[in-house]
Each structure stands twice: as structure tokens, then as C-alpha cells.
Design a protein that fits this description.
Elements: E1 3-7, E2 10-13, E3 18-25, E4 32-39, E5 45-51, E6 58-60, E7 68-73, E8 78-83, E9 92-100, E10 115-116, E11 120-125
Parallel strand pairs: 2-11
Antiparallel strand pairs: 1-3, 3-8, 4-5, 4-9, 5-6, 7-8, 9-10, 9-11
Length: 126
């Protein structure tokens, strides 16, 4: 069982930066592939970024590539999402998710993830 808790959201202006954190209560955090998804009002939950268990493999949605960076610190049981050059269209609730993984893969499909946090709101004003 894994419990996830996101933090770091807030209200910012266009062009600002935020760093989201997701703390995991898992005995073997380093065996979980992690990701960030986001959900805007009235829309589906969409993939943002993913990272493999070791952190060596990452993948991003085209809409955030070059602006967002996912990373993890297995010693701290935490995954991060550094968000730069924020735009109003980045406004959403951001969720972190964990998938049990025996390899070193990343996953972009929402159905691959077994554990979810409660989400943190990010609002970007124009």
C-alpha cells in the first residue's frame, strides 16, 4: 500500500515557476514508477510527466516539454515536478501517481497507476 501527498501548488502569474512535491509513504518507494497527471475543470485527467524507478528514464507530454522537469529522490521518498514558464492553460489540479514496477520503465497511461494522491491546485493567472 502506498499513500501519496502532494504539496507546492498555488496561485501564480504567467511566466512564474512552481515546484510540486509528492511525498510517498512506501516501504520500497524505489520500486515504484511515478508520474504527474493534471485535471482542469470539466476535462479528463491528462498525463503530464513520468519517471522510472531509478530516475534515469523520463517522459513528458508535448504541452509541457521543455518547461517542466520531473525528478525523484528515493532517499526521501519524494517525487518532484519543477514547472517553469507557467501558462494559464497549465491551470489544473495536479496529481501524483505510483505504479509498482519491477523494471525501469515509465508509464503514460492512467490505467497503469494503482495509487493516487489527493491533488494540489495550480492556478496561473494571465
Amino acid at each position: 500500500q502506498v499513500q501519496l501527498a502532494e504539496s507546492g501548488g498555488g496561485l501564480v502569474q504567467t511566466g512564474d515557476s512552481l515546484r510540486l512535491s509528492c511525498a510517498a509513504s512506501a516501504r520500497s518507494f524505489s520500486s515504484y514508477a511515478m508520474s504527474w497527471f493534471r485535471q482542469a475543470p470539466g476535462k479528463e485527467r491528462d498525463f503530464v510527466a513520468a519517471i522510472s524507478v531509478s530516475g534515469s528514464n523520463t517522459h513528458y507530454a508535448d504541452s509541457v516539454k521543455g518547461r517542466f522537469t520531473i525528478s525523484r529522490d528515493n532517499a526521501k521518498n519524494t517525487v518532484y515536478l519543477q514547472m517553469n514558464s507557467l501558462k494559464p492553460e497549465d491551470t489544473a489540479v495536479y496529481y501524483c501517481a505510483a505504479a509498482d514496477d519491477s523494471g525501469n520503465y515509465y508509464y503514460t497511461d492512467i490505467s497503469e497507476y494503482d495509487y493516487w494522491g489527493q491533488g494540489t491546485q495550480v492556478t496561473v493567472s494571465s
